[in-house]
Amino acid sequence: MDAMMMDAMSKDMMSMPGMASMDMATMQECMDACAAAEQATTICATQMMDCAPTCMNCADMCHTTMRSMLRMQGMTADSMMAMLDACIAMCQACMDACAPHTDSDVCRMCMQACQACMDACMAMKDKMTAAA
Amino acid sequence: MDAMMMDAMSKDMMSMPGMASMDMATMQECMDACAAAEQATTICATQMMDCAPTCMNCADMCHTTMRSMLRMQGMTADSMMAMLDACIAMCQACMDACAPHTDSDVCRMCMQACQACMDACMAMKDKMTAAA
Amino acid sequence: MDAMMMDAMSKDMMSMPGMASMDMATMQECMDACAAAEQATTICATQMMDCAPTCMNCADMCHTTMRSMLRMQGMTADSMMAMLDACIAMCQACMDACAPHTDSDVCRMCMQACQACMDACMAMKDKMTAAA
Amino acid sequence: MDAMMMDAMSKDMMSMPGMASMDMATMQECMDACAAAEQATTICATQMMDCAPTCMNCADMCHTTMRSMLRMQGMTADSMMAMLDACIAMCQACMDACAPHTDSDVCRMCMQACQACMDACMAMKDKMTAAA
């Protein structure tokens, strides 16, 4: 996500109750991690292994979480926290489903992307709690 | 959602740990309510009112929740609960955002669909808790 | 899709250049067929057969086509025609990918839903051509 | 999209009829351009201007096109061409809808991202035609 996009979003955040102090770098990292996890899980789901349905569910949840951050004007602290929790839970489920397939390069890539996405969602939660 | 689809899904559920006792009628109602809420919120988001970003976030979350039920093989009890909670939180945020616009037919329709979706998600949670 | 939603959409269509004469019943049938095809293809993609990637691509395209009709204010005749063509092409690809699996109830259901969606998209194209 | 993902996808393409000669760099650029356009159009759609419904339709189409390239196993040359045409048509519609708003930084960003996405989709079509 480039600097021009983040500037446009940052301006909107300033006018939102309780969001002016949101750490934009943390949010940018979280959106990028969600986008990367959606791509990795989508590729993993094409490998016809038993993790595929979990990977696709994870892809959809990561995508929805990323979009909700692109549209922060439409979020509240409560709904953002709930969405981050759901994204974290799906990333965990996806890592658990891929764990038996560590001999697959694609499953290992998928697990790494899900771990990174989960970490980034947790960082968002920490920053939001600190800002509240 | 027609009977043939539900039959196909029901067969898969039978082989899932802890899901054999899932109430398929409750899940079908929840998927239908999610699909209806996605459509109502998407229409509402075209009305250029300040609820639009919330409505679009709600549309994406309802859609992701519906898909996760279509792919129950890829869900765990924990991730399903977290996704239902996120869907409930977004429906609540959407109803709150539309509440100032009760003079708009479209916002009233959107609020009704979100309330129905929230109720159906809560019914799912109740059945899952009872089955656990 | 219920009558209240269609009324709300119909009012918007009236104010769009070249869309006042759009047949709302045909569009409603097309949206319903797209939604049904998305659900059938998503279920089919969980069956771990070689049609799964095609089914998921078809699910996403049917969903995007349905949403574009929910947001007709954001479509032009050209972009709608191109999207209907892409949806028809993906439904055809999905039917071709499922065709070797006629012993599977789920693949047969998926093929029927894709055929119905393709027919409904073609009916939309016919009405749009007649209205132009 | 990182190198590990592209490697995983490249291996799959090798085994697909008529795709072994697909230019992976062109496809990678197209996926990145689609992802960037989805993000820019989603942000633009939050600005409550009359381009919003077109921007959201464009966001969904760019996303679906990106996913279809992540799942090339599920595409045929015909369905890929039709999806690229639909993506090009939606990007054009989006640029046209944003064109009256050149005083808005966000609309200018959105138009640039849509132009880049359209160019990348056309490059994909050229490479596919050359490889056929």
UniProtKB/TrEMBL annotation, chains A, B, C, D:
<dbReference type="InterPro" id="IPR005560">
    <property type="entry name" value="Csp_YhjQ"/>
</dbReference>
<dbReference type="Pfam" id="PF03860">
    <property type="entry name" value="Csp"/>
</dbReference>
<protein>
    <submittedName>
        <fullName>Uncharacterized protein</fullName>
    </submittedName>
</protein>
